[in-house]
What does this fold into?
Amino acid sequence: MKMNINPFLLPNGVTIALQFLKDKLDKLKSIPLVIAIDGHASSGKSTLATDLGEILKLKYLDSGAMYRAVTLYFLEQNIDFNDNHAIECALKNISIDLEYESNKKSTYLNGVNVERQIRGMDVSNNVSKIARISSVRKFLVHQLRILGKSKGVIMDGRDIGSVVFPNAEIKFYVTASMDERANRRFAELQSKNIEASPETVRQNLEERDKIDSSREDSPLIMAQDAMILDTTFLNRSEQLQSALKLIFNKLGI
Ligand code: DC
It folds into this structure.
């Protein structure tokens, strides 16, 4: 018997058989949602957030890009990471905007698109040191909450389900093996022609895991009501379908 499944092609190139999910998706789209996705670097968070955002028509906000933009500013302005006064003053001069259009992320720091610079190893090697500073976190958490106030957003990061939006309707904790994460990050940097060796990429992930999970202020933890998604052996479509199934179950759809 031939099944009546029409593959939908998402703008980002992901094909997924969705016809049989149409009713469930329509129901889901009618619910005002905040979806929080937390997890380690390169675990698949941003891919999942992109694809779910596309399907559910939610605004995608990459909170890590904001921490990266602050880091870039501090590096450019030679701000001493240990000088609290200099940090507080610098934060007053920072304005960050996130845009996501036609499958392309852009991060604006004081009106300049810095998307490429914030993905480089210089920023990657320093961002966790900046992200553990309480005044930086306070500054960005405030902005992220404003962005998510009217619902209809999907946000990824480290503390979204635990601190930024503890009442989010849906929370994911995304994980994958270190080997898989290092391969993914290296491939991503190569595709963007950003220089890095496989060894430095892995070292950077290990170092950031350590700092992000052990810092005093809002470390990466799994929120109590988060759903775990291990993406080690999942391709992009499988990851998306697993997440949708978990969401339907959670909301009783
Ligand atoms: O998601 P990412 O790898 O681009 O994030 C970069 C860094 O920013 C990450 O190592 C920790 C920090 N971060 C954070 O502390 N809290 C968030 N909500 C998002 C990112």
Notes: The pocket of 2'-deoxycytidine-5'-monophosphate is lined by residues 41, 63-64, 67-68, 127-128, 131, 157-160, 208, 212 (CB under 6 Å). The domain at 33-247 is CATH 3.40.50.300 (Rossmann fold).
